[in-house]
Specification:
557 residues, 2 strands, disordered N terminus
């Protein structure tokens, strides 16, 4: 993509020209924005789920050429953004939107809207302000280089520049004003907020070297970026360089090197990042030693994150309870910290160690702290209530959180489990109305026609999902059921076996698939293999009476 016309060099005075080498593409700002990708502590399961979804999405993008439409990819981006619960995770999504917009101008408008939406969501975030401004300063490949910036876009970019108050963001703010042509207009230049602070006497060469590395990262040349970063580490002792290198190695698959760099700083923020990096490099024992150290920190956030991580990586049930009890006590001392996602996960994890009645009693006083706690209360009350009451409460929460994907995903699972066709159909319509997207929803939409007897429609939708190679075990399993109904036993067997290759969290569901495999094998005259499948089903679920009865019948033949 091309940048807009920058400025007439001969109109700049020497001081401005010396300070604006970085003005070519807002290097300093983007460096800060994108080098912080995945800067969250891995203390919350939702963070792990987000970055797992991010990795899956990257694979999807690689295989999307010629298969997925612009709308499909944008919907996938929208789903990721809904899962992003922090500035850092939003930056991860925006980086990918920017990369794909550089390749295809059809995605530029969506990138600009998403960047502005993120900046509005976190108005105090300078990285997001830089990103939003930069998104407005690019043009499609087929545009003329001297195409003027739209007046509205220019004003928005100036607004974002005015948010850049930190010292490290001053070069980015200055670059934005230059790109807008404000330095060529004396009136405009005089109106720039805090303009005196934008003209540093000197810009360290180190800064330019870092910007060069950032350019290489944004261009996808990770080998060159790695070489540049290693070169900087050899020649500089600057904390900024060390921190940049640590973040770079952490983000791009070298967590052990990141841990070694974080270890050179003694502040708690670096220590907890060091622990994260050690955990990612499979040095869990070392990570736990640092989490143990920080579990007594005076900083409640670090204390709670560390206690949660200690509980999540512990195998002794009693120690898990102890860590979670300490976490709960820490939150009691600092109620304001209880609204953070990692705190909610700790509270929920602890509640799952309790019987339903006790869990609800423990969660109820805290229900207003986080939406997930309300959902967890409903999940536990579902064990105590009638189906009708649970469904009614589900709709109450869906109306309260109409754009929260997590409530839709749980509710449609419940409705499908209870075989409530009308409820499921209405929920799917509501999801479309509120722009809820996701592969899980695509699966349920594909499965739904089965409940109303339209096997052909369901078969076509499931095949489409299967073709994208982006599906759960449920897609292959339901496709197999349709093939069984059509007496296509061999293909049904192949689909069931394919389903087993996917992740199946529930042993009961895995056992049911083994049972269906045994049925197909029996129909194909392969009774010995059918018995083996039934035995495997009983290993997964010893209480599976249908499998036990079928095994007994086959053994009597």
């Amino acid at each position: 993509m091309k940048k807009k016309a920058l400025f007439k060099k001969d109109s700049l005075n020497a001081a401005i020209a010396a300070g604006l080498v970085v003005g070519l593409i807002v290097l300093s700002g983007l460096g800060i924005a994108y080098s912080t990708e995945r800067n969250l502590t891995r203390s919350a399961k939702n963070d792990e789920r987000f970055f797992q979804a991010l990795q899956t999405f990257d694979v999807f993008l690689e295989n999307a050429q010629g298969i997925a439409s612009v709308n499909q990819i944008n919907r996938a981006f929208d789903t990721l953004e809904k899962k992003a619960l922090s500035i850092e995770s939003l930056l991860s999504v925006l980086k990918r939107r920017r990369a794909i917009a550089q390749k295809d101008a059809h995605f530029l408008i969506a990138y600009q809207k998403s960047a502005q939406k993120a900046a509005a969501r976190y108005p105090a975030s300078e990285p997001l302000a830089v990103t939003a401004a930069e998104s407005l300063l690019v043009l499609p490949d087929n545009a003329r280089a001297d195409t003027p910036i739209a007046a509205d876009d220019a004003e928005k970019a100036r607004s974002y520049a005015s948010r850049l108050l930190g010292t490290r963001y001053k070069p980015a703010a200055l670059s934005i004003y230059v790109l807008l042509g404000d330095m060529n207009d004396p009136v405009r230049a005089s109106q720039i907020p805090d303009k005196e602070s934008l003209f540093p006497e000197t810009i360290p060469q180190e800064r330019f070297a870092l910007d060069d590395a950032i350019l290489q990262i944004l261009g996808g040349d990770f080998s060159a970026a790695t070489a540049r970063v290693n070169e900087l580490l050899k020649t500089s002792t600057s904390p900024d360089v060390r921190n940049f290198a640590a973040q770079f190695f952490y983000d791009y698959g070298k967590p052990l090197q990141a841990a070694q760099l974080f270890a050179q700083s003694s502040d708690e923020a670096s220590i907890i990042r060091q622990a994260d990096a050690l955990y990612l490099s499979d040095n869990t024992a070392s990570a736990r030693s640092f989490w143990t150290m920080l579990s007594t920190s005076e900083n409640t956030a670090y204390k709670v994150k560390s206690l949660y991580n200690l509980a999540a990586t512990e195998t002794d049930p009693q120690k898990i309870i102890s860590f979670l009890e300490r976490l709960s006590a820490a939150l009691q001392q600092r109620p304001d910290d209880r609204t953070a996602p990692y705190a909610a996960y700790g509270v929920i994890t602890y509640s799952r160690l309790l019987p339903p009645e006790e869990a609800v009693a423990y969660l109820e006083p805290q229900h207003a702290l986080h939406p997930l706690i309300e959902l967890e209360i409903l999940r536990r009350e579902q064990e105590l209530w009638t189906a009708e009451k649970t469904i009614a409460q589900s709709w109450i929460l869906l109306n309260k959180y109409p754009t929260d994907e997590r409530f839709y995903e749980w509710s449609i699972w419940l409705f499908n489990l209870l075989r409530r066709t009308e409820e499921t159909q209405l929920l799917i319509k509501n999801a479309a109305y509120n722009n809820i997207t996701g592969t899980w929803l695509d699966v349920y939409k594909a499965i739904f026609p089965i409940s109303i007897g339209d096997l052909d429609e369901s078969y076509e939708q499931l095949q489409l999902i299967l073709y994208d190679n982006h599906y759960s075990y449920a897609v292959a399993a339901n496709l197999a059921r349709i093939m069984e109904a059509r007496h296509n036993t061999a293909d049904a067997l192949a689909c069931y076996e394919n389903a087993l290759l996917r992740e199946i969290k529930s042993k009961e569901n895995a056992a049911r698939i083994q049972y269906r495999i045994s049925r197909c094998l029996h129909l194909l005259g392969r009774d010995e293999e059918s018995k083996t499948a039934l035995e495997q089903a009983l290993v997964l679920n010893p209480d599976y009476l249908a499998a036990r009865a079928e095994l007994k019948r086959l053994e009597s033949l």
